[in-house]
Amino acid sequence: MTDTVNPMAGRFSGQTALITGGGRGIGQEVALRLAAEGARLTIFDMNLEGAEETCARVKNAGGDARAWKVDVTSRDAVASAVKSAAAQFGGIDVLVNNAGIGWRIPFLDITDADWSKIIGTNLTSCFIVGQEVARVMVTKKHGRIVNVASINAHIGTDHQAAYAASKGGIVALTRVMAFELAPLGICVNAVSPGPIETALSAMNLTPVTRRAREERIPQGRLGKPGELAAAIAFLASPDASYINGTVLVVDGGLVSGGIREPKVPG
């Protein structure tokens, strides 16, 4: 997207949004989208250089953004950073739990270290950051949390056991958070993206694997980061004020599809 930010207008005018993993890819796109709609930004990322790049793009376009190098799996690090961010911005209105990792490993080859790393970064971080930010939100009895899951939470794929388990956990955690936090004025939802066109996917997909994915998606293409950012922005906005505990699948119809019948010549 273009770096067009008008901090005085938009659905998030006067609000502060915290985004984990906002230093690149989808997280950066979400950050730029929320900033374009008026949000002040707090970026948590272990990649401080990337987080600062995101903030620079927002500031150059007239917005307000600050970066913290934070290990989102560390309770102490998260608690300290959340406290600091809330103090600087006067609270936190929106949280997007986007930080995540994953790599393909056959089920029989996954080590305990692999499992712990993926579950910790993807799922435990949602719990830790979500809890610390929710404790800030309850002071105003208002907040929006969007957790980023994956279609791997809904369908089985090979070599993705740890990743799928972490994303399935995010879906379950989202529903419990929504149920418990709704009386406190906080709505919690999740998005489950399908294949998205990012720099990482461009590096990892060969022409053959890319074509195979596109053939399975009813819309016939990978999603754009901006399309996912738009869905997340909607769930975080006042427009979704009566949506709580839902999982919005953003995948071009992949999960809803079945086996496509082959075309018969003639």
Explain this structure to me?
Strands 3-2-1-4-5-6-7 form a 7-stranded parallel beta sheet, with helices on both faces. The model is unreliable at 4-8 (pLDDT under 50). With 266 residues, it is of the alpha/beta class. The relative contact order is 0.13. The chain has one domain (16-250): NAD(P)-binding Rossmann-like Domain (Rossmann fold), CATH 3.40.50.720. The protein is globular, with a radius of gyration of 18 Å. The protein has helices spanning 25-36, 48-60, 75-89, 112-137, 161-181, 199-204, 207-216, 225-236; strands at residues 16-20, 40-45, 65-69, 94-97, 143-148, 186-193, 247-250. It is built from 8 helices and 7 strands. Helix 4 (112-137) links the parallel strand 4 (94-97) and strand 5.
The number of domains is 1
Q: What radius of gyration results from the CA coordinates?
A: 18 Å
User: What structural class results from the helix and strand content?
Assistant: alpha/beta
Uncertain ranges: 4-8
What top-tier CATH class fits best? Alpha Beta
Query: Count of DSSP helices?
Result: 8
Summarize the helix and strand pattern as letters.
Answer: EHEHEHEHEHEHHHE
Beta-sheet strand percentage? 5-15%
Might you state the CATH topology name? Rossmann fold
The end-to-end span amounts to: 43 Å
The number of strands is 7
Tell the overall outline.
globular
What percent of residues adopt helix (DSSP H or I)? Answer: 40-55%
Q: Which superfamily, in CATH terms, is the homologous superfamily?
A: NAD(P)-binding Rossmann-like Domain
Give a topology summary:
Elements: E1 16-20, H1 25-36, E2 40-45, H2 48-60, E3 65-69, H3 75-89, E4 94-97, H4 112-137, E5 143-148, H5 161-181, E6 186-193, H6 199-204, H7 207-216, H8 225-236, E7 247-250
Parallel strand pairs: 1-2, 1-4, 2-3, 4-5, 5-6, 6-7
Helix pairs in contact: 1-2, 1-8, 3-4, 4-5
